[in-house]
Amino acid sequence: MNTADPHWAGQAERGSPALMRLTAWAARKLGRRVVAPAVWLVVLYFYLFGGRARRAIAAYQRRLAHTGELTVPLPRVLPVYRQYLAFADAMLDKLDVWQGRITMDSLDMADPHGLHAQMGRGRGQILVGSHLGNIEICRALAERTGALRLNVLVHSKNAVHFSRLLDEAGGGLRMIQVSELDAPVMLDLAQRLERGEWLAIAGDRVPLRGDRSTPVDFLGATALLPQGPWLLAGLLRCPVNLLFCTRHGARYRVSMERLSDGIEWTRATRQARIAHWAQRYADRLAAHCRLAPLQWFNFYPFWKDDA
């Protein structure tokens, strides 16, 4: 990521609140098939006039294609625009799941470590997600089935309008601002874990403070990933798991896997241990990107050598 680029968290949320509200209302009342042409036009606008985001997606697709054979190949025609369309579908999916139109019957689960059975039992754990696919579906279904109280650690100030739409759709959002892991925040998170609640945090967005990042090899080039999830895990002393939810046709594939039973570090070993776990995460994220190449929704320069 070029140092001249503004930080992703400093970018204003794009899109008119009134237009977003109208689109959500139309999708709810008229259905997705009726709303789809309007959504495509909106996406086309952002595609045509969002040069920086368009270049970032193209850079991702080039790196992905150069790292080996993809499980699902990229489209030959307008692959970048197709990724925009996939993002639009994901936004509509978020509304649909909170309105009960997506249910557990729509999911295919991959849970080799039996993590689903551990939810709601004993002390809470950490789920590290990403901007791949749509983990909002997992959170909504967990809420609606009563299986789990899941707290999402976010920089939600950047998407206040869309967050409000989800709330109006019945989300009952429980988002926690984590721009800084200060003592009050850590105490609150520890108490939530003791109550059996789980924490979810994205592992693929560099924090506001650039010194809290670590370099990794991601899709064949150096990128910066946040230290936050791994710092948090070491401080809270709880298991760490990975969560991915991607769409495949009309169904959603949820993958849950144990990354570590507990991450430990000392002041002397902290940087090396965090780098190790960040690289493990980057490797798993890359593997899942190959399974759903159009569904990594990062619209910012990501690699250190991106112009």
Structure report:
This protein has 307 residues and is an alpha/beta fold. It has one domain (8-295). Helices cover 44% and strands 17% of the residues. It contains ten helices and nine strands. It has a seven-stranded mixed sheet with strand order 1-9-8-2-5-3-4, with helices on both faces. Strands 6-7 form a two-stranded antiparallel sheet. A hairpin with a 2-residue loop joins strand 8 and strand 9. Helix 2 (32-49) crosses helix 4 (79-98) and helix 4 runs parallel beside helix 6 (136-145). The longest helix has 22 residues, at 270-291. The protein is globular and about 50 Å long. It starts with 16 loop residues before the first helix and ends in a 16-residue tail after the last helix.
Radius of gyration: 19 Å
Described by strand count, sense and barrel closure, the largest sheet is: 7 strands, mixed
Sheet with the most strands: spatial strand order = 1-9-8-2-5-3-4
Low-confidence stretches: 7-16, 158-163, 168-173
Strand content: 15-25%
**Morphology:** globular
Give the helix proportion (percent range). 40-55%
Number of domains: 1
Structure classification: alpha/beta
**What's the total helix number?**
10
| Total number of strands | 9
| Cα end-to-end separation | 7 Å
